[in-house]
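Exercise 7b. Backbone tokens:
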């Protein structure tokens, strides 16, 4: 089986796994991260392109948010797929990268300097900020029925706006590669512009401002 066949098999496996995901974590998210990762690696030239592509494709397949928190089974399915696809040689490094990619993983382990992990993490985080990041945040907030914003308990209740401060505005400072840092700067600025406009409109809508 050649590399193109393996990639096609991996794409189909991922599409089947993501049927119940929200549209912020769907196949188009995978495609966007894929393009970003490819661009970063073309600039940095540090990761094996094939291994990186496989890791990008599989990186959300065991996402606990959509797997009933059963990550063990999710990773078991990924491992089984990779064995059947003849990917034993890169299986361990790909799974390790996937385990470590998440922003919410407070205890990463293994080779944290693996180029595949560094680029995958950058690409995934870049898709979480900027205009698309904002769209994804509100889409997921709706998916979870979270409030948009509650100014009375803004720091103590889960809301989409609080998510900006908990994660999105932090990501600019968590990029690994120089290429990602450059890309993150513009997207981060757009987050700040959006929040400024959001608060301006919110204050007007609640009666704090009565003039345009």
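Sequence design result:
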């Amino acid at each position: 089986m050649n590399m193109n066949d393996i990639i096609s098999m991996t794409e189909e496996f991922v599409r089947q796994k993501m049927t119940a995901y929200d549209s912020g974590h769907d196949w188009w998210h995978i495609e966007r991260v894929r393009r970003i990762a490819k661009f970063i690696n073309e600039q940095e030239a540090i990761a094996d392109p094939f291994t990186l592509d496989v890791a990008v494709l599989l990186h959300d397949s065991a996402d606990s948010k959509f797997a009933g928190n059963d990550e063990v089974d999710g990773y078991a399915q990924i491992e089984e797929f990779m064995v059947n696809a003849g990917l034993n040689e890169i299986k361990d490094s790909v799974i390790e990268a996937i385990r470590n990619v998440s922003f919410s993983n407070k205890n990463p382990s293994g080779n944290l300097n693996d180029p595949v992990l560094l680029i995958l993490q950058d690409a995934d985080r870049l898709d979480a900020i900027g205009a698309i990041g904002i769209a994804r945040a509100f889409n997921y907030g709706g998916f979870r029925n979270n409030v948009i914003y509650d100014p009375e308990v803004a720091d103590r209740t889960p809301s989409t706006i609080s998510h900006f401060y908990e994660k999105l505005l932090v990501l600019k400072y968590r990029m690994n590669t120089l290429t990602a840092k450059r890309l993150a700067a513009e997207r981060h600025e757009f987050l700040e512009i959006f929040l400024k406009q959001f608060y301006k409109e919110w204050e007007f809508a609640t009666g704090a401002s009565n003039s345009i």
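Instructor comment: The longest helix spans residues 178-205. The chain is about 60% helix and 0% strand.
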